[in-house]
From TrEMBL:
Subcellular location: Cell membrane
UniProt name for this protein: Na+:solute symporter
Any one GO molecular function term: symporter activity
Chain spans, region Disordered: 479-505
One GO CC annotation: plasma membrane
Transmembrane region(s): 6-22, 42-67, 73-94, 123-147, 159-179, 186-204, 224-246, 267-293, 313-332, 363-382, 394-417, 424-443, 449-469
Transmembrane found in the keyword field: yes
Membrane topology listed for this record: Multi-pass membrane protein
Family, similarity comment: Belongs to the sodium:solute symporter (SSF) (TC 2.A.21) family.
Keywords from the named record: Cell membrane, Ion transport, Membrane, Sodium, Sodium transport, Symport, Transmembrane, Transmembrane helix, Transport
KW Membrane (keyword) present: yes
Species the sequence originates in: Streptomyces mimosae
Length: 505
């Protein structure tokens, strides 16, 4: 990397510092820290929702899929997300927002104690937090792989540097810092993405991408190729519908932070449109990489090799700044929502006096929790040293266990399932995770479609079957669900129950 590239990277970090400082002035309570009190405009919420799905994993693991198998990566990943978010715009987005607006909920899991019971809330909180710490560790590994490829920075140094930088602005700025970093990431990604697209077009000719398919290895133009199957795409469609509409807790926060349920739906539709269109701009150069940097033995290195081959000084630095912003924004997003779960759902049960902390003390506690959580994820990333960790974690662990964790959380919001109670919720969670363990570790030769899809299907069947055979809905839980049908302004409700009413039932 040239001096100009490092200047661009340094400039990015100065912008991050400025974002953190500006955001700090807007954070005075835990409500500001976790949900921005519903003051984030719908368009910013939608862009943040979209960008929170990106990290350096895309330019390592997914670039490898594009290099080895071709355009199937679009049908397998962003297309399923876009369709899922589109469905969720009408099912889930507004309901998440109304939890905050009508019930003062600050964590996506905070309503579960009242909707089901406290044990249900706790098992989902602990299992989801454990999953997220491993997921974030995979993202630290991904950015460190890119840093080593661009600048030969050792893996441990890359993880520590990026982690400390993320903590520095996240702990002071909360959700405001997170969404503004997402916006900056969107701008950087747009400039860098179009720069790479133009560079590839100049290399392969103005008719790119229309004539490249015949020159690529056989099957690289097929929607179904390599290890990707039709069943895997179907499984991912169902998983991503749950994951990107709130099963991935930080994305529920984006809906909660919008001004109203109606605005949250608009933000979801914006995110849906971006998912269906924008990733094609990013993936087409990755798909074309075998024509420009052929013969790579490790597909994970293809995007780095492509950048070094085509981009001039300055743009490589911008690309690297984009990688930083992808990972830092997603980790900041995950850290904020996990901190919300620990602060609002786990800690008060373990140490009841946490409930009696002043607003200022709660905010300090949230910031300390953020530092500890990010530090733990960094330690896991350094310990694994990245050996086959990224793709295995993102696909086979996160995607496969997301269904069992998210089904009681997500379906519990919908009025059709309001009589389903805690027995169905806990059994579906446990059964799904058990099936994942058996398929993943006990059965040889399990396909990715089975690893991803069967846990979700098991959880869904158990939740619906037990729930309808053994309804346990209470008047309080049913009223909670039905209250999410309208915005406060639509039903004349001005009531804002306190946290204890929601979390303790």
């Amino acid at each position: 990397m040239s001096a100009l590239d490092w200047i661009v990277v340094a400039g990015y970090f100065l912008v991050v510092v400025a974002i953190g400082w500006w955001s700090k002035q807007r954070v005075h309570t835990v409500a500001d820290f976790f949900t921005a009190r519903g003051r984030i405009p719908w368009w910013l919420s939608g862009i943040s929702h979209h960008m929170s799905g990106y990290s350096a994993v895309m330019f390592v693991a997914f670039a490898a899929v594009a290099y080895n198998d071709g355009i199937t990566v679009y049908f397998w990943w962003p297309l399923t997300i876009g369709l899922g978010v589109g469905v969720g715009a009408f099912l889930f987005a507004a309901r998440w927002n109304r939890l905050r607006a009508k019930h003062d909920v600050k964590s996506p899991l905070e309503y579960l104690a009242r909707r089901y019971n406290l044990p249900t809330q706790q098992v989902l909180a602990y299992s989801g937090a454990a999953l997220k710490v491993v997921d974030i560790a995979a993202k630290w590994v991904a950015i460190s792989v890119l840093l080593k490829g661009f600048a030969d920075i050792p893996l441990e140094v890359g993880i520590i540097f990026t982690g400390i930088a993320t903590m520095a602005y996240m702990t002071v700025g909360g959700l405001w810092a997170d969404v503004l970093t997402d916006m900056g990431q969107f701008v950087i990604q747009a400039v860098a993405g179009f720069a790479m697209l133009v560079a590839v077009m100049m290399e392969l000719g103005a008719d790119f991408p229309f004539t490249m398919w015949g020159d690529l290895p056989e099957g690289h133009g097929d929607p179904i190729a390599g290890s990707v199957t039709t069943w895997l795409i179907i499984a991912f469609l169902f998983v991503k519908t749950f994951e990107y509409n709130g099963g991935m807790w930080n994305l529920a926060q984006r809906y909660m932070a919008a001004p109203s349920g109606t605005e949250a739906r608009r933000s979801a539709l914006l995110s849906c449109g971006l998912w269906l269109v924008w990733p094609l701009i990013l993936f087409l150069p990755m798909v074309a990489a075998p024509l420009i940097v052929p013969g790579l033995t490790a597909g994970e290195e293809s995007y780095v090799a492509l950048s070094k081959e085509l981009l001039p000084a300055g743009l490589i630095g911008l690309m690297l700044a984009g990688f930083f912003s992808h990972t830092m924004a997603m980790v900041a997003s995950d850290s904020n929502v996990i901190t919300a779960v620990i602060t609002r759902d786990i800690a008060p049960v373990l140490v009841p006096k946490v409930r009696r902390l002043t607003e200022r003390a709660q905010l300090t506690f949230a910031r300390i929790t953020t530092v500890l959580f990010v530090s733990l994820s960094m330690a896991i990333a350094i310990t694994t040293r990245g050996e086959g960790f990224v793709l295995d974690t993102v696909v086979q662990l996160v995607a496969a266990t997301m269904g069992p964790i998210s089904i009681p959380l997500m379906l519990g919001l919908l009025p059709w399932f309001r009589r389903i109670g805690p027995t169905a919720a806990i059994v579906s969670w446990a059964g799904g995770l058990l099936v994942w363990y058996v398929v993943r570790y006990q059965i040889d030769g399990s396909t990715e479609a089975a690893i991803v899809g069967l846990p979700l299907l098991t959880s869904l069947v158990l939740y619906l079957g037990i729930g309808f055979l053994k309804p346990e809905g209470t008047t309080e839980s049913e009223e909670l669900v039905m209250s999410l049908n309208t915005d406060p302004d639509d039903d004349g409700s001005e009531e804002r129950p306190g946290r204890s009413e929601v979390a303790t039932g």
